[in-house]
UniProtKB/TrEMBL annotation:
The protein, known as: Diacylglycerol kinase
Organism classification: Bacteria, Bacillati, Chloroflexota, Chloroflexia, Chloroflexales
Membrane-crossing segments per the record: 21-39, 45-62, 69-89, 109-131
Organism: Roseiflexus castenholzii (strain DSM 13941 / HLO8)
Keyword Lipid biosynthesis: yes
GO cellular component: plasma membrane
Amino acid sequence: MPGATRLRSASAPRRSSVRWVQRRLRSFLFAFAGIGHLLRTQGNAQIHVVAGSVAIVLGFFFNIDRGEWLALALTITLVLAAEGVNTAVEAVVDLVTPGFHPLAKIAKDVAAGTVLLTAIGAVAVGVIVFLPRLWTLVAPLIQGAI
Ligand SMILES: Nc1ncnc2c1ncn2[C@@H]1O[C@H](COP(=O)(O)OP(=O)(O)OP(=O)(O)O)[C@@H](O)[C@H]1O
């Protein structure tokens, strides 16, 4: 039936784009599951979330400017992303190397060191953005107490 053939060929691209969207949605769901695993199981990631939340609250409290919000957003994202990569590296290393191996040690230590580097950067950003403001707030109290 020529009509049926026309109908099938017209709906085929639509079906394939629906499948494409479904596949993309599924990948997003897996990615969100990965974030969930990270936040549920990794104590360090939970500490980073608390620290990031404190920074966001301080940002609103001190009414920081656009550039400072940008630095804060990038910093918080970078630390959490590094923690995610570190967790993934640990999982793969444990999967591939059940016993002790010097290369496994290097992989885990360097991954953990990468998180530490981003955390040091985050502390530096926090100090640059908030320390002068906190000092302005606290200094009169200290001077009043002396
Ligand atoms: N298979 C291994 N071979 C050699 N050294 C290892 C191995 N597994 C772990 N290590 C060493 O032990 C350290 C701790 O590894 P572990 O897997 O316990 O991670 P962790 O520090 O507990 O990480 P987290 O607390 O973030 O889960 C590593 O940084 C590495 O120096």
